[in-house]
Design a protein that fits this description.
Elements lengths: L2 H12 L6 E5 L6 E6 L4 E7 L5 H16 L17 E3 L2 E7 L4 E2 L5 H16 L14 H6 L1 H15 L2 H21 L2 H6 L2 E4 L8 E4 L2 E5 L6 E4 H12 L11 H11 L5 H14 L4 H10 L4 H18 L13
Antiparallel strand pairs: 1-2, 2-3, 3-5, 4-5, 6-8, 7-10, 8-9
């Protein structure tokens, strides 16, 4: 039986939906997804490979409900016949949400950028959101509190999937970057930074615009309770590039984005931005293993793509980078 057969069975027997068409959504993730078309409605079905953790997926259900209660633009999860929202079938978890139609976020569109900032600020300002367990897919804090151990896991996984020569080149850069990052962001500083429930992957592909408003935020797979500046840093890095397909920033716009997000960022928050961005692009052993197991065709692409991003961020966001053009803002 194929995965498509599994998807049909989940829809038919758990959600009582009779799809007339299932179209694969080819993302660059171990997850699998389908656009589901029925006679009356459209949905998105996801096979949750990336976060195969019942406790965390229950938290995602609770977080989704809480965000909806606050009026945040997130799609609800559909209930199955037994009222569950996360289905276990063939040793994997599945979730179904309504399909939302909107245009993708446009790089360089000032209105879209202002909307992204507005919604990001809204998310971080919401009170009494459930904090939940640590996201099993994210090892941000491990890089800071246990850098040697976390890097050794990356090294172990990397040496199994690339040549020894390539692994040595990559690990040399990862180690150098990690040593520099630790000088900017130690455990004490990390804990002292203002925390909030964060999205974790707030980029153009997860933002849909309708009637000039950011009407839907997709993919909370990397949500976690962590420093708010992590979200702002990643979003600024990905939304203020000069164009898609490059990691070259318009530094002036990057600083403007961050100042519009919060005009009271502390010195520690500013200094941590470069560190957080670079940590995002040092692969974890867990993620490399997931790619190798479920989407091996993406593995070499991901390793090369993340390495390019890491080098680009390192070159552009050196220490005190945010002060270099401050007079031009």
């Amino acid at each position: 039986m194929t995965t498509l057969d599994d998807a049909n069975n989940v829809l038919k027997y758990w959600f009582s939906e009779q799809p007339i068409r299932l179209t694969p959504l080819n993302g660059r993730s171990p997850n699998e997804g389908w656009l589901v078309e029925t006679i009356k409605n459209c949905f998105v079905l996801k096979k949750c490979v990336r976060n195969h953790d019942a406790e965390w997926l229950q938290y995602l259900e609770d977080l989704t409900d809480a965000l909806l209660d606050h009026g945040f633009p997130i799609q609800p999860m559909m209930e199955a016949e037994d009222r569950r929202k996360t289905i276990l079938f063939k040793e994997h978890f599945w979730q179904l949400r309504p399909y939302f139609e909107g245009r993708p976020y446009e790089m360089g569109n000032r209105s879209d950028e202002q909307e992204a900032i507005r919604v990001l600020k809204q998310l971080h300002s919401l009170k009494n959101l459930p904090k939940g367990p640590v996201n099993p897919n994210c090892e941000l804090k491990n890089w800071i509190t246990s850098p040697d151990e976390t890097l050794s896991k990356t090294a172990y996984a990397l040496k199994k999937v690339v040549s020894s020569k390539k692994a040595a080149v990559l690990l040399k850069v990862y180690e150098r970057e990690l040593m520099n990052i630790i000088t900017l962001l130690n455990p004490s500083i990390y804990e002292a930074l203002p925390h909030a429930v964060t999205h974790g992957d707030f980029h153009s592909g997860n933002l849909l615009i309708r009637n000039k408003k950011l009407a839907m935020v997709l993919d909370f797979d990397t949500a976690d309770f962590r420093p708010r500046i992590y979200d702002a840093a990643i979003s600024a890095f990905l939304l203020t590039r000069i164009k898609r397909g490059t990691f070259q920033l318009d530094i002036v716009k990057t600083i403007q984005f961050l100042k519009a997000y919060a005009d009271d960022l502390s010195e520690y928050e500013w200094r941590s931005i470069s560190a957080f961005i670079r940590l995002l692009y040092i692969p974890t052993g867990r993620y490399l293993t997931l790619l190798h197991t479920y989407t091996p065709h993406l593995l070499n692409w991901y390793i090369d793509w993340s390495f390019e991003a890491l080098k680009s961020a390192s070159n552009q966001l050196k220490e005190d980078w945010y002060l270099q053009k401050e007079m031009r803002i």
